[in-house]
């Protein structure tokens, strides 16, 4: 009888410790992935953004080695989004792209997600890993639409932000130029920037409607 009782107690002890260890491990695990933040690290599961936009690359890293491929991918993604809202397509502006390249080189050493002081509209994207693409950046900017209300012209609930999305669909913006830069230290990641002209995101204005002149 004593042996049987000891065996039962032992089983309960083992079960309790297994459950406790499991709960402890779960509490130390990172939180589940969530939607894209306003700016910052995209550590959650990465979707196939190029496929989402229906864009086919000539090779997986074509945009890294060929400026024409990079332009085509950025334009395709932007104009896919704009077509969803029946907006005129953006045109590529090499002056804007040149500005984006020069500004990202200023961030080459620190890889900080800091906006420039230019009078252009500007979307920026940072990723810790080096696999992010033009389609990825535009996709996560586009997904901010989830929180934007065209009725109230607000991004809700706080502290959600939607300025990347509203800039992409800003009707009065006609040109875009973008750049992608791996930072000096691969461990600090990479940056993507797109510049828009004319700039958008004026307070209390509907991005889909021509601004009053």
Automatic annotation (TrEMBL):
Annotated keywords: Signal
InterPro entries per record: Allrgn_V5/Tpx1_CS (IPR018244), CAP_dom (IPR014044), CAP_sf (IPR035940), CRISP-related (IPR001283)
Signal peptide: 1-21
Coiled coil: none
Domain SCP: from-to ranges: 69-204
Record-level GO cellular component terms: extracellular space
Keyword Hydrolase: no
Pfam families: CAP
Protein's name in the database: CAP, cysteine-rich secretory protein, antigen 5
Protein species of origin: Medicago truncatula (Barrel medic)
Gene behind this protein: 25484073
């Amino acid at each position: 009888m004593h042996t049987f009782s000891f065996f039962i107690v032992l089983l309960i002890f083992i079960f309790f410790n297994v459950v406790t260890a499991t709960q402890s491990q779960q509490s130390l695990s990172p939180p589940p992935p969530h939607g894209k933040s306003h700016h910052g690290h995209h550590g959650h599961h990465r979707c196939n953004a190029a496929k989402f936009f229906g864009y086919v690359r000539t090779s997986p890293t074509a945009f890294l080695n060929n400026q024409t491929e990079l332009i085509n991918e950025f334009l395709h993604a932007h104009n896919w989004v704009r077509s969803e809202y029946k907006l005129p397509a953006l045109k590529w502006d090499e002056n804007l792209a040149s500005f984006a390249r020069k500004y990202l080189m200023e961030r080459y050493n620190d890889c900080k997600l800091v906006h420039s002081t230019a009078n252009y509209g500007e979307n920026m994207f940072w990723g810790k890993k080096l696999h992010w693409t033009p389609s990825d950046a535009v996709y996560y900017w586009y997904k901010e639409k989830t929180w934007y209300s065209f009725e109230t012209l607000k991004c809700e609930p706080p502290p959600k932000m939607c300025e990347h999305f509203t800039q992409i669909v800003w009707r009065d913006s006609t040109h875009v130029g973008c750049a992608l830069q791996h930072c000096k230290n691969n461990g600090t990641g990479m940056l993507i920037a797109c510049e828009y002209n004319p700039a958008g995101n004026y307070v209390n204005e509907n991005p889909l409607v021509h601004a009053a002149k």
